[in-house]
Specification:
Blueprint (H helix, E strand, L loop, with lengths): L2 H30 L8 E10 H14 L3 E6 L6 H15 L3 E7 L8 H9 L3 E5 L7 H6 L6 E4 L3 E5 L17 E10 L2 H15 L19 E8 L3 H11 L4 E5 L7 H12 L3 E7 L7 H14 L3 E5 L3 E2 L3 E4 L3 E5 L5 H6 L2 E6 L2 H16 L1 E3 L2 H5 L3 H13 L4
Helix pairs in contact: 7-8, 9-13
Length: about 400
């Protein structure tokens, strides 16, 4: 057998191995994940669209913690801002507050061993979530814990799109200002957030926490009806399909990456054909290779069906939201893309209060004013390199 034949055989073998690994890994994942969601609960919420304001509030609440701090982030960087975050956690641990920090193995790969050792030496309990594991190496390397939640003293919760790093407080020139939506939560759903944190913690941390024995103070009921839904392994697609199928008048989607599944795309096109007004907000600049090119094929189809597409011009748009008929809105960690739908662990909050939806709609309308309309003619102009990248992105869209 000559060398080219050997190379081709090896490539085919690797492709077959990836396919088998991914298929069996996904099958196992589906078998162990059970649907979880809260009933309709009530609480109070603050919305933070700017990182600087969020982290002033967040760091203040961390410093005020008396009993425990439980934190899960997808990305924690290795920069000066992240060091401020670590310093607060170390200080609280020295004061006797129980501090647990869980971060995604891939998303937070820049966290150094020296930093982890320093955290542990001061009493911070640290673990990596979603490490690459046998026997499904390829599949486990693709499943990311994209949830970003914090629980302080069992009384205050945070959930949304921000991570910890300088770009999130507008200190990355390319991506500034960073636009995102993050929630501060008090009320009945905070214990559920704590429960969700420990489900992930117990899967990867060396100790195992008994959930029902953990301190959870009685919560004030709050005024805003909402529901919190964690998803993984494809369950988000089912949730989004149900939302879109209920639309009567309008849907607004805000997302940094518009790469929907075939079922979701078919449902959106069907909605457009029956007269639903569809508005999509996406970034003008991108933070990852090929994700913008991957979105173009879907945006073309939506524009052909009469949807409005806006590209955010005032920095980088990383926010994740859906508004249905001005009656329901979704804010959370999930992007409107195949990775969030089929691979990532996500958690979203669904609001059923028209007054809150109006309050949030004012924020997204400001973002639309800071955007420019994307036209079908823009996407159809001949552009060789863009077309080449679109072809590559289309083949890889499931993993972008």
């Amino acid at each position: 057998m000559n060398l080219p034949s050997i190379v081709i055989a090896l490539i085919l073998l690797i492709i077959v191995w990836f396919y088998i690994d991914f298929t069996l890994g996904r099958k196992k994942h589906l078998s162990i994940f059970g649907k979880r969601e809260t009933p309709i609960l009530h609480g109070n919420f603050d919305i933070f669209p700017h990182g600087k304001e969020l982290f002033v509030d967040y760091f203040h609440e961390l410093k005020m913690a008396q009993r425990h701090i439980h934190i899960l982030f997808y990305i924690v960087r290795d920069d000066q801002f992240s060091q401020q975050f670590f310093d607060i956690l170390k200080t609280k641990a020295k004061e006797g507050v129980e501090v647990r920090l869980l971060v995604d193995r891939v998303g937070s790969n820049k966290v150094k061993k020296t930093v982890i050792n320093e955290l542990r030496q001061t009493g911070v309990q640290f673990a990596f979530s979603n490490r690459i594991r046998l026997p499904f190496i390829f599949y486990s390397s693709q499943v990311r814990n994209h949830r970003k939640i914090s629980i302080i003293d069992g009384k205050i919760g945070y959930l949304g799109g921000f991570n910890v790093g300088k770009e999130y407080i507008d200190e990355d020139p390319k991506l500034s200002p960073w636009r995102d939506y993050h929630l501060k939560i008090t009320g009945e759903s905070v214990p559920f957030l704590q429960h969700e944190f420990f489900i992930d913690w117990n899967e990867y941390a060396p100790d195992n926490v008994t959930l029902d024995s953990f301190y959870a103070p009685e919560q004030p009921k709050g005024t805003i009806p909402h529901q919190i839904v964690p998803t993984e392994a494809g369950f988000l697609e089912e949730r989004y399909l149900r939302l879109i199928q209920k639309v009567k008048k309008s849907i607004i989607i805000g997302t940094p990456y518009f790469i929907p599944s075939k079922k979701l795309m078919d449902e959106l096109i069907s909605s457009a054909k029956r007269g639903i007004k569809i508005t999509i907000v996406v970034p003008y600049i991108t933070d990852h290779m090929l994700v913008q090119e991957a979105s173009y094929r879907y945006l073309r189809l939506m524009l052909k069906e009469g949807a409005e597409v806006f590209q955010y011009m005032n920095g980088f748009y990383h926010a994740k939201s859906i508004i249905i008929d001005d009656q329901l809105c979704d804010i959370g960690t999930a992007n409107f893309d195949k990775r969030s739908i089929f691979l990532n662990k996500e958690i979203n909050c669904y609001f059923y209060d028209p007054a809150f939806v109006d309050r949030f709609k004012d924020i997204i309308q400001k973002d639309i004013l800071d955007s420019k309309p994307l036209k079908l003619t823009d996407l159809n102009k001949p552009h060789f390199f863009r077309s080449l990248k679109e072809g590559i992105a289309g083949a890889l869209s499931f993993f972008l």
